[in-house]
From TrEMBL:
GO cellular component: a single term: cytoplasm
Residue ranges constituting the Glutaredoxin domain according to the UniProt record: 42-95
InterPro entries: GlrX-like_pln_2, Glutaredoxin, Thioredoxin-like_sf
Record keywords, A-Z: Cytoplasm, Redox-active center
PANTHER family found in the cross-reference section: GLUTAREDOXIN
Cytoplasm as UniProt keyword: yes
Family note: Belongs to the glutaredoxin family. CC-type subfamily.
Subcellular location per the Swiss-Prot or TrEMBL entry: Cytoplasm
Entry protein name: Glutaredoxin domain-containing protein
Species lineage: Eukaryota, Viridiplantae, Streptophyta, Embryophyta, Tracheophyta
Length: 129
């Protein structure tokens, strides 16, 4: 079957995500990135070995959120609808880079945004009887 290309679709399902991370090799980078943004409540797009992504991911993990982190090659990074690297998307909306997420956290606005995106549940407080 030389010369015949069959479509390939790879899926990775993690415990933290309810939706699979699917890679369809026939998708363009732009289409794949838009799909990942719409399918995952918290997505970080970054380049390999980005220390700012590591800090951003650790901040979110400390809060209790497990972000989807996508490392892109130099030819794919231009397909991200953002000028920041790393680029954070919450509930499909671009939030910004590391400076933006730290600013939101210090101002007390990050947790409400994570709850609105469905990435974090409201704590249930039970009063002692």
């Amino acid at each position: 079957m030389q010369g015949i290309q069959l479509p390939v679709r790879l899926e990775l399902v993690t415990a933290a995500n309810t939706s699979p991370l699917a890679i369809d090799v026939t998708e363009s980078a732009e289409v794949r990135i838009q799909r990942l943004i719409s399918e995952n409540p918290v997505v970080i797009f970054t380049r390999p070995s980005c220390f700012m992504c590591h800090v951003m991911k650790n901040l979110l993990l400390t809060i209790g959120v497990h972000p989807t982190v996508i490392e892109l090659d130099d030819d794919e990074i231009s397909a991200v609808p953002s000028a920041t690297n790393p680029a954070l998307f919450l509930g499909g909306d671009h939030v910004g880079g590391l400076e933006s997420i730290v600013g939101l956290h210090l101002a007390g606005h990050l947790v409400p945004k994570l709850i609105a995106a469905g990435a974090l549940s409201l704590p249930i407080w039970v009063s002692p009887s």
